[in-house]
Amino acid sequence: MGVKNMTRTMIAAIFSIAIGIFGTTTYAKDVTINLGYAAAETSSYGVLAAEFEKLAEEYSGGTIDVKVRCCGQLMGEDEAFKAMQLGTVDMHIITGNNVSPHFPLMDAFVLPYIFQDKDHAYRILEGKVGDDFAAKLNAATNVHLLTFGFVGDRDFYNSRNPITSIDDMAGLKVRVPKNQVMIDTFAEFGAVPIPLPWADTPTALQTGTVEGADNGTSFIKSQKFYEIMPYFTALEHFSYFSPLFASDRLMNKLDEDQRDAVIRAARDAGLAQKAEMSSQIDGIRVFLTTDGGMETAEFDRSGFIAAAQRVQDKYAAEKGQEFSDLVQAIRAAGNTN
């Protein structure tokens, strides 16, 4: 063997030994995630998005860069879920009732007064029922539900009269999201529901096209509806949550460590949002009915609850066995005392 060949052989051997000892180093590719939501930056959506941005970048060691787009910059909620199915949007926060057209089982959580209180809601969503639901949604739609986050209540406001009982809802023109459960609920309350996209709601309220609406308590403040609506009612007729969703295209683009970072960041951001928003709600209601200038009144909730029960029973009977089973699981978890 010549000297040159011997040298090549030795170099190759040394190289092979080095690989065996030290292995090869694989560096994760940097990934940019565009995360959208349709509400104001000061809303509960903003709390969740900002916390996720911070944690995902931290947990990934800087290989993930989250770009948050508030206020409908990417698109509205009605279009966002479909866009994630197509892979044209990475991540979006969407209120549960706007997911129902794409995954009807979500309506079980939209049903009026379906949760007895917040502990009941979190037992469901943060437990096996919530995990199974997220798995079913992913199997049916290819969209990943990463966290349910904070559970709030939708409160009611209107320009016509104080609400003291269900009788005061008669004939009231109420903006509702394009969700059949919500439409049917307000009809059962005696109101005239008018389905409108979120983007059209402020103008409809200002022009009198509708006389009232409901939103999460924090949204009534962040959207400054107290400036145009004189009457406030802490009706709490619908619970709401606004999960953080991710497209399958995004999740498949991440390496294993990045995927784990995104999942962990979403979970921890949801818990942080829950703690932050839970601490604010009572103060927001005080603001709305004092400095915000809205008038409120004591009201009899019994008529609303009876109407809600009729809506629950109707949907449980008509929506099929899987829907009925989920409603029964939710009800059973509320009967733990």
Automatic annotation (TrEMBL):
Q: Name one Pfam family in it.
A: DctP
Q: Which CDD domains match?
A: PBP2_TRAP_Siap_TeaA_like (cd13603)
Key word Cytoplasm present in the record? no
Q: Please tell me whether the keyword Cell membrane is annotated for this protein.
A: no
Query: Mainly resides where?
Result: periplasm
Cellular location(s): Periplasm
The record, for PANTHER family, names: PTHR33376, SIALIC ACID-BINDING PERIPLASMIC PROTEIN SIAP
Matching entries from NCBIfam families are given as:
dctP (TIGR00787), TRAP_S1 (NF037995)
Q: Which family does it belong to?
A: Belongs to the bacterial solute-binding protein 7 family.
From the Swiss-Prot or TrEMBL record, give the protein name.
TRAP transporter substrate-binding protein
* Organism listed in the record: Parasulfitobacter algicola
